[in-house]
Amino acid sequence: MKITWTKIDEAPALATYALLPVVKSFTKGTDIDVEISDISLAGRIIANFPEKLTEEQKIPDNLAALGKLAKSPEANILKLPNISASLPQLQEAIKELQGKGYDIPDYPEDAKTDEEKALKAKFGNVLGSAVNPVLREGNSDRRASASVKKFAQKNPHRMMKPWPESGSKSQVAHMEGKDFFGSETSMTIDKACNVKIEFVNADGNTTVLKEKLALQDGEVIDTAVMNVSTLRDFYAKQIDIAKKEDLLLSLHLKATMMKVSDPIMFGHCVSVYYKDALDKHADSIKQIGANINNGIADVIEKLNRLPADKKAEIEADINAVYEKQPALSMVDSRKGITNLHVPNNVIIDASMPNVVRDGGKLWNKEDKLQDTLAMIPDRSYATIYKAIIENAKQHGQFDPATMGSVSNVGLMAQKAEEYGSHDKTFEATANGTIRVVDESGKTLLEQTVEKGDIFRMCQTKDAPIKDWVALAVRRARASNTPAIFWLDEKRGHDAEIIKKVNKYLPESDTNGLEIKIMAPLDAMNFSLERIRKGQDTISVTGNVLRDYLTDLFPILELGTSSRMLSIVPLLDGGGLFETGAGGSAPKHVEQFVKEAYLRWDSLGEYSALVPSFEFIAEKAGNPKAAVLAEALDQAIGKYLENEKAPARKVGQIDNRGSSFYLAMYWAQALAE
Fold first, then answer.
1. pLDDT for residue 581
2. What is the pTM of this model?
3. Which of 62, 290, 471, 590 has the fewest CB atoms within 10 Å, i.e. is most exposed?
């Protein structure tokens, strides 16, 4: 039986060069093959655009092949973190490939011809989180292994900064209406059918936005709209509050995964914050083809297309904005890179845990921590961050040495919920209605839109929901821990899911288990109360909260989310083993290029290999795989105990050294 190891991007890709030879050595003669599958950003671009490449340059569409494999019982995929490319990252990768002699077309930002539109759609296959929805043909079981949690409590990480006893001014701001949460309508399909999404303008003219969408019996669908004029008013109001209260302004979205909706929401923030400069020079900015959805950096970079005096004038006016507006949180204060520079620099699931960890603060342009006003426009999930910020303001910082843990059972199979909505998300071209219509012409769901509004439709299939409920019960039983479904009956989509949870829970043995359904705000407060008592809780959530919580709690508990065990029991019987979370660490690569020192911690990979070997032992009846798993688990315990993880600074132990120690401890455990 084989393990398919994904070749990906940046730091984990570099770390593979040290770890994979070790794994291959240990599996020699065990009937376990380890094969590489290239699904890196560059690999996916090459696979999608083979037309003008030489035979040597071409590579197969490995992602499609892995998608097929994920639907087979033999699947045993070890998935490392990959880039979810934003548009600027995609363009950078194209440029790099072209520089290496690959004849890849340019990305047509302003697609006018049919050919350009087709090209843009093809590049859309590579944009954003293109990998995860294809591979995640199962629901998610994420938790810290017992050895990792024990080590974290014995050796608490030192990254936590105290919340000020004198009080913190930090706050989370969200909209009060006309957001996705407020507008969401939902229904369950009672009979399989095909639907289309269409836009009807004020004159009654109809444009089809999505030609055909096959819906299954029992599938939950929903639609929601973000009203952009209300969104812009929200931004303007928060900018004023941040200025008056001397708070660092920050915006927290997920423009990588939510590749259609969130860059637009990001762009509106850029245009409101830099309004004076952008309005004054609107003609010039249009002339150079800058797209503010790509951040203020896109404007600044394209100013070179203008005469020097005009460029200098616009730069001066952009800089003048900083004197008038509240200070922005910084991504890199030395380079002057702010939160609004590019959309992919600040990603909510990584940025908000850091606010909690750092005592409610973010970095300012003086490279000092400062209280922040964190804007999270949509109320669907903003309230959970508001709750933890308020909890920390009231009770102080969390203690990694004593805090309980929150593991997660996440609904994500078959592109569930918002994370599968990209091909059903549209920016309204005029005032009117966007509706979901079945083949008989009956309108199932509809939303009134104004020009520029963001319409979104989501799907959640019945089989994944049923599997998710059963998985939650299994985890509650195995760990003897309360399991809380984070679902809000006041939200359209959640109300439909609650009906299904109540339908499927009786199919499992829940005798003696504590299983509750709570709105996310209440579930967060319940979990935080238990955490502070050192008690564990299972969060049973939808796809977005799965993503957010499996960064939030591990960062507080363990110092990083990359140390989490992430198991996806695939619906068709295979296994997907994800190596932690937390992205692909581009800063680690910068350090590696400069100092030949890689500080990526491969603990996520080590931990994922254990259940991968256990899967082979059980599935193929291979006792050698069971021995490898047990010995590796012991080796990980020693690796942690003896503190052999990579250090931050050159001259200490790096990833290569860590891989050596893991191999040594693994060999010792096997010998015993």
1. 60
2. 0.90
3. 590
